[in-house]
Each structure stands twice: as C-alpha cells, then as structure tokens.
Amino acid sequence: MRVVLQRVSEASVTIEEKIVSKINNGLLILLGIEANDTFEDIKWLVNKVVNLRIFNDENGVMNKSLFSTQGNAIIVSQFTLQASTKKGNRPSYIKAAKPETAIPLYQEFIAQFEIQLGKKVGTGVFGADMKVALVNDGPVTIIIDSKNRD
Q1: Is residue 149 predicted with pLDDT exceeding 90?
Q2: Annotated catalytic residue 101
Q3: Does domain 2-145 have CATH number 3.50.80.10?
Q4: Are 102 and 79 in contact (CB under 8 A)?
Q5: Beta bridge partners of 133
Q6: According to the model, what pLDDT value does residue 68 have?
Q7: Of the residues 23, 29, 52, 55, which has the maximum number of CB atoms within 10 A of its CB?
Q8: What b/e sequence results for 1-38 when a residue is b if at least 16 CB atoms lie within 10 Å of its CB, and e otherwise?
Q9: Integer CA distances (angstroms), 69 to 42, 55, 60, 64, 87, in order
Q10: Rounded distance, CA 34 to CA 101, Å?
Q11: DSSP 51
Q12: For the segment 57-77, what is each residue's pLDDT rounded down to a tens digit?
C-alpha cells in the first residue's frame, strides 16, 4: 500500500463538474493499493499518516500532526501509484489490486483513518474520472510505502 501525502491549504475532488469533497488545511492523500495488501498494511499506514509531524507549530517548525492540529483530509484511491516503469515506456499496473480486492481495502482505510483522526474525511469515488485540485502548502509532499518500513 502506497500513499502520496500533500499538505494542503485547500483541496477538492470534482466528478462530472460536481464537487464531491472539499477541505481547507490538512492532507490530500492519494492511496495506491497493491494486490497483496492486508489489514496490517492499513493499520500501520493509517497510524503513520495520522501522526506524522508535518504541520507547523507556533514557531514555524514542522512539529505537529494531522491529529494534533485536528486538520482535515481527503482520501483518493489512485491505482496508478502502483505503476511499474522498469521496462519500456508504458507503465505496467500488474501489481495494482483488482477492484474486488481494492474497494474493501479502500473503504477499510477510510474507516480506520476516521477512527484514528476522530472525525469524518472527504473521499473520491473509486474508479471515477476525478479532477483533483489542491494548493500544496509548503510545498510538502511525502511518499510512504507500507512494504518499506525502514
């Protein structure tokens, strides 16, 4: 399971010209689910993301987490995060989980995230053609892979 976190001052997800999620001050989380991901990957990754200290404290130092700031989040499923570009110029998505595996894991990631954060989060719609807009604050962009916990 792989996430791209972007600290944002605002973000939104639009589908068919309708805004389905919109936040200020928080994280836009792009989530790529691999075929062999498990609930353990979800638990570890949710805990890491919710508690990652990437928000500024009163001294301008990145010392606060999404949880401690009670920031907002949008979680968007993005299978292309599992792309392999080793061969040729066309990415392979063979590692990406099929919808029958990915949808329940995506839904569980959202549920666990809301439990840990203590509030609802925005989402995209699995498999939809989405337009994701954001203002990256910092900019701060971090990639975390649950299979690489070093």
Answers
A1: no
A2: no
A3: yes
A4: yes
A5: 12
A6: 97
A7: 29
A8: bbbbbbbbebbbbbeeeeebbebebbbbbbbbbbeebe
A9: 22, 8, 14, 7, 43
A10: 9
A11: H
A12: 999 999 999 999 999 999 999
